[in-house]
Amino acid sequence: MKLAQITCTAAGLALLAPAAIAHVTVVAEKSAPGATTKLTLRVPHGCDGEATEEIRVELPEGVYAAKPMPHAGWEIDTETGAYATPYDNHGTEMTEGVRSITWSGGSLPDDFYDEFSFRAALGAELAPGAVLYMPTVQTCATGEEAWTDTSGGHDGKPAPALTLAEAPTAPAHGHDHGHNHGHTHDHAAQDHAAHDHGSDGHAMQAQAAGATADVTLGDLTLSSAFTRATLPNAPVGGGFLTVTNDGDTDDRLIAATSPAAGRVEIHEMDMDGDVMRMRELADGLPIPAGDTVALQPGGYHLMLMELAAPLVEGETVDVTLTFETAGEVTLPLAIGAPNATGAGHEGMH
């Protein structure tokens, strides 16, 4: 069975930077919302040469019904607590469950690598592309390595992060027309997002967010701007819109800010086989003359990081976008359901 590789930071730099192999990461056999899956923490080293004697992982909202796998030579302890929202576990309502798992009493020398696994379900209400952070602390004889940074930043010690994938694609049944009404330059991501119908056809289709008015900035028209509601304590959210350049001059989206987030980055995300990769576009996103570029789930998008509060469905959140040529503009993002695929009528068929 193939394993879906999960990046160690929201930007996916863990897959690009050589130093990232030193981070504790997590892999999952399945990573689509609604899946029950085996998740495995990979521990590549100790604490400054010391052997690892304890591994503790905290489970975020959206991960429930967790059961740790015994590890030879190690003891297992779990802590239970209430979920922010109940989950339907095969017809049984779960209001609480395992919130952290600790493996202790063993010894993993710094020269060796090991894996620690558990089984859990992923909330069906989660959206593909969402990032679930799992803060992990490895304790050694006199020190520790705390992989607990959930900001999605590029520095420090990022928490292992699970990036949710799309549900398996069902046969098209005449609906092989996707959700993208523009032309993007990330064809792998666009093709992946165009089949967001899920394994149950229309029953699994995501909802649309509320419509917001188009905004004109010079030769640019910004439309279909939306974001998705987030879980309590979620550190990041996504921003999506369509940018049409009716001018004769190329432009570029070079920066973004929002009062709802500590910072906003411009990202791209696509699937490389079974590997979902995300990375920051440090040089911005080109908006070619006479073309339309779609920022959409599964492709180019804004990443709202260090959220000050959850994004609530039915409300709006402002973002300020800076373009190299057209300048700066502030527009509202309509906050849709956690699985929204578009603003207004988009995403509904």
UniProtKB/TrEMBL annotation:
Looking up Pfam families in the UniProt record yields:
DUF1775 (PF07987), PCuAC (PF04314)
Domain (YncI copper-binding): residue spans on this chain? 23-164
Q: Which UniProt keywords apply?
A: Signal
- Signal sequence: where? 1-22
Annotated region Disordered: the residues are 169-207
Q: State where composition is biased (Basic and acidic residues).
A: 173-200
Know the name of this protein?
A: DUF1775 domain-containing protein
